[in-house]
Design brief:
The protein is mainly α and 343 residues long. The protein is 76% helix and 1% strand. It has 13 helices and two strands; from the N terminus they run H-H-H-E-H-H-H-H-H-H-H-H-H-H-E.
Length: 343
């Protein structure tokens, strides 16, 4: 193995410093560690263990779905690579507005592993369709809980408007994703748009040919998806389970603080309603909106003396902790080529 030269070491150190700084900035901006410590002191820590496991299950679920999409596109991808792509999505989504950096980062890591960008995009599109269906479904069940239970969720608050906007945005996004996946005309329109944009920045004669080749490869993968409905069903099912695991964190926080009045499904599905409602807010990791919405939506479930601790514990587990472990993992997972069946 060749020794690292100075340039490689410098670039590596620069990446480590940049990623660590970004993660540190986002975490320290959102959390006061004295408050986190005080919140942990007054809870039953044993209940936080399943909460942490739920967060890990959330990440592993995305890895499984990405792996399914890449397998459908003709790639044999190992568990380490699948986890790397999932962690890249979480980390860069958490530190960029509207989670805009997640998918580009995932495509970057895939391209380093010799995965065609059209096939990588296809796998991420499948995963996102499953995610949106899961998010809307659990959010809708959360609305039913708020309507038919005796919990005064929307009483005296304007969060109902945020919920309406959030659901509208998610429905529109899902519709667009499904059109891109299954409409040949929509893909042609996107191809023409991409060619026009590319021509503004590049005068190379083969640019149009490259884009058309990418679109053609994407369409072939999409046809495979239509002909393999079992895979689509699996991705949707895994998405539902991983989101339910994520929403379960709030329930385990509730139990950790010694509370027992509300059921698991009431709390988990209300968290699903909150998640879908604030997903449209253009802030890194929905910072601020998630905490504010939690305070409004769960004020009748958590006593006022424990509400602050509940917010801190929940966001520490579903945001700060995974931001740390995904960033660290990305730094040390090696580059591994994904093997294509067509090679």
């Amino acid at each position: 193995m060749k020794p690292c030269n100075k340039k490689t070491v410098f670039i590596g150190l620069l990446i480590i410093i940049t990623m660590t700084s970004l993660a540190g900035y986002v975490i320290f901006k959102q959390f006061d560690f004295n408050e986190v410590a005080n919140a942990i002191k007054q809870c039953n820590i044993l209940w936080l263990i399943p909460a942490l496991l739920c967060m890990l299950a959330f990440s592993m679920g995305e890895a499984i779905n990405i792996n399914q999409g890449l397998k459908l596109a003709g790639y044999k991808v190992g568990p380490a690579n699948s986890i790397k792509y999932a962690f890249a999505g979480f980390f860069f989504s958490s530190i960029t507005p509207s989670a805009s950096g997640g998918q580009p980062a995932q495509l970057y890591y895939m391209s380093r592993d010799k995965i065609n960008i059209s096939h990588g995009s296809f796998s991420l599109l499948l995963e996102l369709i499953g995610f949106e269906i899961g998010s809307i479904t659990l959010g809708f069940l959360g609305i039913l809980v708020s309507v038919f239970s005796d919990i005064p969720v929307f009483e005296g608050s304007n969060i109902v408007w945020l919920a309406i906007v959030g659901f509208m945005v998610n429905f529109i996004l899902l519709a667009v994703l499904l059109i891109i996946m299954f409409s040949r005309k929509a893909v042609k329109v996107l191809a023409c748009f991409a060619i026009k944009i590319t021509s503004l920045f590049s005068k190379k004669k083969d640019s149009k040919r490259s884009i058309l080749r990418l679109i053609s490869e994407y369409r072939l993968a999409a046809i495979k998806a239509r002909n393999n409905k079992k895979v689509l069903f699996k991705i949707i099912l895994v998405s539902l389970l991983r989101l339910l695991a994520y929403h379960s964190i709030t329930f385990f926080t509730y139990k950790a603080l010694g509370l027992n009045s509300q059921s698991y499904f009431e709390i988990a599905l209300l968290q699903g309603l909150l998640f879908t409602s604030v997903s449209c807010v253009p802030l890194p990791g929905s910072s601020g909106a998630m905490e504010g919405g939690f305070g409004i939506l769960f004020k009748s479930i958590f006593p006022s003396s424990l509400l602050g601790s509940a917010i801190i514990l929940t966001r520490t587990i579903n945001f700060a902790v995974p931001l740390i472990y995904t960033g660290i993992t990305l730094l040390f997972l090696p580059r591994r080529k994904a093997h294509s069946k067509t090679e």
